[in-house]
Design brief:
Homodimer or homotetramer. With about 350 residues, the chain is an alpha/beta fold. Helix content is about 40%, strand content about 20%. The chain is built from 13 helices and 13 strands. The strands form three sheets. The chain has a seven-stranded mixed β-sheet with strand order 3-2-1-4-5-12-13, sandwiched between helices. A four-stranded parallel β-sheet has the order 7-8-6-11, with helices on both faces. Helix 1 packs across helix 11 (about 280-300). The structure holds 6-O-phosphono-beta-D-fructofuranose.
Length: about 350
C-alpha cells in the first residue's frame, strides 16, 4: 500500500505533527510506503512529490508550518484537474490520499472521493476553528494562546497611557479566536463576524471603562463588520477569497473611537503571528491523534471520511459533513461574554 499525503490552505501549527503521526504508524504498524505531495493540490496536479519516510519526519513534531508546503490551488477549477490528479496517483502507485486541510481543501477531497471515486481520507485543520463536525481543529489553541498573551501585554501599555488598545485577530467568518482570546485575556469589548457591531455602543463601553479608571482593550475579529451599511460599502473590499470585508477593521475602529470619544486609540494587528511557530501541547496532542486515526481509516478503506474530535474521542464523519456549513459562534455563547463588556 502506498499512501499520498498533502497539506492545503493556510498553514497552521500542528500540520507537521499530523504528518509524523501518519507516517510513524503507517510504516511501523502497517508497513505502508508514502509519497508526499508539495503545496497542497498543486502537488498531484503538477506531479510534484517529496520523499516521505521515517527519517523525513524525524524532529518535526514541534515545528510550525508544514514540511510539505501548502497552497490554495483548487484542481476543480481547471478543466483537466481530475484527470491530471488520477494520472499522477497512478504514476506513483498511490492507492489512497490523506488530505489535511480546511474548508476549501477538504471540499475538493469530498468531491474527488464522492463524485470521482478517488480514495481520500480527510484531516481537519484551521486556526479559525470554523470547520463543522469536529469540536476543535488543531492550530486554534496555539492561535488563542498567542492572542491571549498579546492582550495581556496590551493591558499594561494601555493602562500606562490611558489609551484604548484595539487588537485585531484572525477570523474571516467566525469569531472563535476573538471570543476565546478576548475572554481569556479579559478584553472589555469583543467583536465577531457573526454579529454586526454598533460603533456608538462600542464607544459607550469604552467610555464607561475610562470612568472606572481603567484603559479598555477591544478585541476585533478581522471579519467583524459595523452595522452601518454605508461605511461598509465605502470601505469594504474583496479579500483574497472573494468575500466582502471592511479592510483593516481594527485601524478603522480605532480612528472612529478617537473621533467619537476624544480618547487616544491605537491598533495592533496580530496577523500571521497567530499562524506561525511551534504548536501548543494541546495542538500537538490533537494533531498527532488525528494522524494516527487517519492512517487507520486508510487501513479500513473508509474513504470519503474525515477524522474529527468529539469530546475526547476521535471519530470518523463524512468529509462533506464538515464542509457543508461553517461552524460559527452561536449567539448565546457570544451573549455569555457580554457581562464583561464596558
Ligand atoms: O487560515 C485561516 C486564515 O488564517 C484566516 O483567519 C485569514 O483570514 C486567512 O487565513 C489569511 O490567509 P492568507 O494570508 O494565507 O491568505
Amino acid at each position: 500500500m502506498r499512501v499520498g499525503v498533502l497539506t492545503g490552505g493556510g498553514d497552521c501549527p500542528g500540520l507537521n505533527a499530523v504528518i509524523r503521526g501518519i507516517v510513524r504508524k503507517g510504516v511501523q504498524e502497517y508497513g505502508y510506503e508514502f509519497t508526499g505531495f508539495r503545496d497542497g493540490w498543486r502537488g498531484p496536479l503538477d506531479d510534484d512529490t517529496l520523499r516521505l519516510d521515517i527519517p523525513a519526519v524525524r524532529g518535526i513534531l514541534p515545528r510550525g508550518g508544514t514540511i510539505l508546503g501548502s497552497s490554495r490551488t483548487n484542481p476543480l477549477k481547471s478543466e483537466d484537474g481530475v484527470r491530471r490528479i488520477r494520472e499522477t496517483l497512478a504514476a506513483h502507485g498511490v492507492d489512497a490520499l490523506i488530505v489535511i486541510g480546511g474548508e476549501d481543501t477538504l471540499g475538493v477531497a469530498a468531491q474527488l472521493s464522492d463524485t470521482h471515486g478517488i480514495p481520500c481520507v480527510g484531516v481537519p485543520k484551521t486556526i479559525d476553528n470554523d470547520l463543522s463536525a469536529t469540536d476543535y481543529t488543531f492550530g486554534f489553541d496555539t492561535a488563542v494562546g498567542i492572542a491571549t498573551e498579546a492582550i495581556d501585554r496590551l493591558h499594561t501599555t494601555a493602562e500606562s497611557h490611558m489609551r484604548v488598545l484595539v487588537c485585531e485577530v484572525m477570523g474571516r467568518h467566525a469569531g472563535w479566536i476573538a471570543l476565546h482570546s478576548g475572554l481569556a485575556g479579559g478584553a472589555n469589548v469583543i467583536l465577531i463576524p457573526e454579529q454586526r457591531f454598533d460603533v456608538d455602543q462600542v464607544c459607550a463601553w469604552v467610555t464607561s471603562r475610562f470612568k472606572a479608571s481603567y484603559a479598555p482593550i477591544v478585541v476585533v475579529a478581522e471579519g467583524a463588520m459595523p452595522k452601518d451599511g454605508d461605511l461598509v460599502l465605502k470601505d469594504g473590499t474583496l479579500d483574497s477569497f472573494g468575500h466582502v470585508r471592511l479592510s483593516g477593521v481594527g485601524e478603522w475602529l480605532a480612528k472612529e473611537i478617537e473621533r467619537r470619544t476624544g480618547k487616544e486609540a491605537r491598533t495592533t494587528v496580530l496577523g500571521h503571528v497567530q499562524r506561525g511557530g511551534t504548536p501548543s501541547a494541546f495542538d500537538r496532542w490533537l494533531a498527532t491523534r488525528f494522524g494516527l486515526h487517519a492512517i487507520e481509516a486508510v487501513r479500513d478503506g473508509d474513504y470519503g471520511t474525515m477524522v474529527a474530535l468529539r469530546g475526547t474521542d476521535i471519530v470518523r464523519v463524512p468529509i462533506s459533513e464538515a464542509t457543508a456549513q461553517l461552524k460559527t459562534v452561536r449567539p448565546e455563547l457570544y451573549d455569555e461574554a457580554g457581562v464583561f463588556f464596558g
